[in-house]
Design brief:
The protein has twelve helices and six strands. With about 260 residues, the protein is α/β, with parallel strands linked by helices.
């Protein structure tokens, strides 16, 4: 049963309600059948090919990690910047996959001070730039370094992600990088069902934060759908005040926000 729409149209509270009632929405048997099909798809498309998968620590990549484990793929990568939430990094340290390689693309507060148009994206074009310079760049570096033939992603149609044109959930870009999305047809409800039935670790802290299910994993400066810059600082302040205090040394709007808080 499909209840949730895209992240942009479903509230954080909608996701929590579905998670609380997931056994009535997705029976375990339905999820197991889907899981088995995804594992077989991975084995078929990657047989004899050097393969790894991308992991972000978010709900989709946790489900993908489960598929990869069953398919026998353990090497993986995570792209990050120097603008991550410390609490999330602590969670990653405790619960990351054994075969994870972290690639830091280097964006920091000094960089952000020079690119303040990237702060709290107000449109999909700016948000896409964050993914391109962190996740996509890290994937490209890892692909080349390890001479991969296929890199596997947790992209899904339910989020409106591009997964290829021919119905195979696989495509090769102009740089010769082949990306495969074996959970492309999973609904949001399937992802939540996987977390409920199979994931025994604590969920990443994002999902207990304001608008957590709607925003997903991201560098704090890439936080989407805020009602302006001040609202972005307000949400980050609610999560980790130290981030805002440190940012105020470089970015005037953060300093202004703190002055208004006095």
């Amino acid at each position: 049963m499909q209840v949730l729409g895209r992240k942009q149209t479903s509230s954080h509270e909608d996701w929590i309600e579905v998670m609380d009632n997931i056994e009535h929405i997705v029976p375990k048997r339905e999820l197991d059948n889907l899981l088995d099909r995804s594992v077989e798809d991975v084995k078929k498309k990657t047989k004899g090919k050097k393969t790894a998968f991308a992991w972000s620590g978010g709900k989709d990549s946790i489900a993908l990690e489960g598929v990869m484990k069953e398919a026998g793929v353990h090497e993986c990568l995570m792209g990050m910047s120097n603008l991550e939430y410390p609490q999330f990094l602590r969670w990653v340290t405790d619960y990351m996959p054994d075969g994870l390689e972290v690639i830091n693309t280097g964006q920091d507060l000094k960089w952000l001070a020079k690119h303040q148009d990237m702060l709290f994206p107000q449109d999909s074009t700016t948000a896409a730039k964050w993914f391109k310079m962190i996740q996509h760049k890290a994937q490209e570096k890892y692909f080349e370094k390890h001479k991969l033939e296929i890199i596997i992603l947790g992209r899904r149609k339910a989020d409106g992600n591009y997964i290829g044109k021919k119905g195979e959930n696989l495509y090769t870009n102009r740089q010769g990088i082949t990306r495969f999305s074996p959970i492309a047809d999973w609904t949001h409800e399937h992802i939540l069902a996987y977390l409920h039935y199979y994931y025994k670790n604590p969920l990443p802290p994002f999902y207990s934060w304001p608008r957590g299910y709607r925003c997903g994993t991201h560098s704090w400066a890439a936080r989407q759908w805020c009602n302006g810059i001040m609202d972005g600082w307000r949400e980050v302040y609610m999560i980790d005040q130290d981030i805002v205090f440190e940012a105020s040394k470089y970015i005037a709007s953060a300093k202004t926000f703190l002055e208004r808080m006095r």
